Amino acid sequence: MRLILALFFCTALHSQDFAEISGLVVDSGTRQPLAGARVVLVRMGPGASYSMRTFEMELSPEMPDPAAPGFAILTGDQGLFRCKVTAPAEFMVFVSRPGYVKWGMSFETQRRFGVKPGENPESLRIPLDAEATITGKVVDADIGAALPGLSVTALKWRVFKGTQVLMPAAEGSTTTAEGVYEIKGLPPGEYHLRIELPVRKKFSPGGDADEFRDHREIAYGRAYYPGVDAREQATPVTLLPGATLASTNFKLTKKRLACIRGRVYSLEGEEFPGEVPVMLGRVEYQGDSVSYQAVAQAPIALGSSFRLDGLPPGRYWLQAVLAKGSPPGRRAAYHFFELDDANVDNLELAVTKGVAIRGKATLHESVTGTYQEVIKPESPPQVSLAYRDRMSNGDEVAPVRWQPDGSFEIQGVMDGTYKAYATRLPAGLALGEVRYNGSRQPRGLITLNRGALEQKLELVLYPATASIQVSVMDGTRPAKDAQVALLAEDYDQEDPQREVKTAQTDANGLATFPKLIAGKYRVLAFGPDATWRTTPSLRNLVRTAAKVVDVATGASAAADVKLTAVE
Questions:
Q1: Cα-based angle 46, 50, 52 (whole degrees, multiple of 5)
Q2: SS3 call for 11
Q3: Both 381 and 458 in a single domain?
Q4: Is 483 among the domain residues?
Q5: CB of 250 closer than 8 Å to CB of 226
Q6: What angle do CA 242, 244, 249 make, to 5 degrees?
Q7: 226 pairs with which residues across the strands?
Q8: Share of the chain above pLDDT 70, in %
Q9: Domain presence at residue 4
Q10: CA gyration radius for the chain?
Q11: Domains held by the chain: number
Q12: Which range marks the domain in which residue 268 is found?
């Protein structure tokens, strides 16, 4: 009897190491179960990763290993799946089936859940959208001729970092010889269609300056359905699950496009064997999101000129990077510029060394204690410089070297404008002031002055113990789920959305901004679906409609605001 009880007790303990995961996969439109759907479970933890290839994971045996880092199973006749896993654990789930949109990789469907030993969590219900398709033809608006070789992309609004941004929803399509395009695999919803020349272009030799100056490039530039230049003028299209939206036709008009010409050389007069990789990229800002699109890339001999034709208006950057070991040994050049429809000549990429900036983190006089008492040497703050207007390759600035007294050195800093950051700060502190070569830099922005006698950076840490509670009203009612925007008084008046803090109101119309530095702030509130970041009137709204709130160190201020209408 004792042996039986002992065996039972050991079995019971062992069973507590497992949990059961179950779910149902259905068609989102018909609500009917879907048999044969591939369900992939990926165990999260150190080293865990997933990508679009995760959907193609090889099917597991009939009884998957409960401790496996990931496995794939198929739903049965009733759309059900069930498996046993070792617990505790966290999983990501991915589901796919031919003819349906993949579930688990987008912002809307990403699902992460945890299980505990002996637990049977609530069954997952996963709706799959039947794939929809958009087809159409692209023609010249004046003569009706078909336009081949143009790239068409379906863009969908998504929420990213608290704001709405347009992002590609599926792989794009290139128009055929007959001007026809077809975009498949789309989930239902509203889309904007963008058309443009193929992104990848080729640099050509710079050629004659006089010929370039007189050259006029007339071609089809970037446009939005049904053929307008600006996204704000575009007509959205709506897709139902599994539907095909045919005859979504573009009519395009040729226009003048810009051409650029420049050269790459060594500022120090150094000679390097071989060629220097040169790249042109396009930059687009949407709210907090910055997207970078490579337009052209090619190796160019040092001292040579280059040229590129057919560029639509927009914001671009040129870079030439010659890697020689770590960042202190790199040679690089960057040039950031705006294009309209006029040609731009003399874009000079002067490849040069980066400089070293020496700095120190100090405490504001209102912070209690000395630097050594507040900042522990074994866990100092992390200092970084982020390029403000272009893409960083991640290794262009060497890691900061810290000393126990708060001094540091940043090596390999190239020409450009940077935003200074200090992270991993102790609770109650924030970066409040940035000084470069003795001068205070508004909003923490520094522009490298290569000719300065010395390169010094001072980061002053302020107490971040203030807070602001915002109460938002929609008429006479509390505004639930309103978007609340908070800007420090020294905000960027040309582009105020760049560094705005955001929060969402609760059911009582309340939102709180904690851990603030003392000072003046501006507060605005917008409806849940308002696209306030991209409205042309934002600068005027911040200046005229925002409520100004002054908060002291360690204090809490209140702000009562009403919803602001967005044009």
A1: 175
A2: helix
A3: yes
A4: yes
A5: yes
A6: 150
A7: none
A8: 90
A9: no
A10: 29
A11: 5
A12: 260-353
